[in-house]
Amino acid sequence: MRSYRIPNEISTELKINKMLYLFDLLFIIGLIVFRMMALPFIHSSLTIYFTIFLIVFGLFMIVRPTTNPQKRMFHAILFALVRKKDSYSAIDYEGSDK
User: Fold this and answer.
1) What is the structure's pLDDT at 33?
2) For this UniProt entry, which segments traverse the membrane (predicted)?
3) How many CB atoms neighbour CB 51 within 10 A?
4) How many CB atoms lie within 10 A of CB 3?
5) What dihedral do alpha carbons 12, 14, 20, 23 form, nearest 10°?
6) CB distance 65 to 76 below 8 Å
7) Res 13: pLDDT
8) How many angstroms separate the Cα of 9 from the Cα of each of 6, 12, 20, 22, 50?
9) How far apart are CA 18 and CA 13, in angstroms?
């Protein structure tokens, strides 16, 4: 009978260097590809502003918020938009010391 090794954790993100994860690199590459595809539709006088906007947008989206460092900023924005605004839940301050 064969024995299979099951990894202990599979949800860890792959780090490329000290601050850059694989997802961040792929997101930046995706923004570069999007810029190259959208550039013919942008007026020539606005290309610099469009590039600066995409750089700022990309950096903002991959930054990890201090309130929840396991998630990225776009996760925090998505959770804020999707959550039910008429329901409240208690915050357990004593159980968060773990």
Assistant:
1) 97
2) 20-40, 46-63
3) 13
4) 4
5) -90
6) yes
7) 78
8) 9, 7, 20, 17, 40
9) 12
| 3-state secondary structure (DSSP) of residue 14 | coil
- Which helix (H) or strand (E) segment holds residue 78: the answer is helix 73-82
Say which residue the tokens 């915050």 belong to. 91
Phi–psi pair at 33, nearest 5 degrees: -65, -40
Note down pLDDT in tens along the chain; length 98 residues: 677 777 677 777 788 888 788 888 999 999 999 999 999 999 999 999 999 999 999 998 888 888 877 888 888 888 888 877 777 777 777 765 55
Q: CA-CA distance, 53 to 50, in Å (whole number)?
A: 5
* DSSP E strand stretches across 1-98: none
- The count of residues in the chain is 98
Please name every residue paired with 21 in a beta bridge, in sequence order, or none if there are none: 15
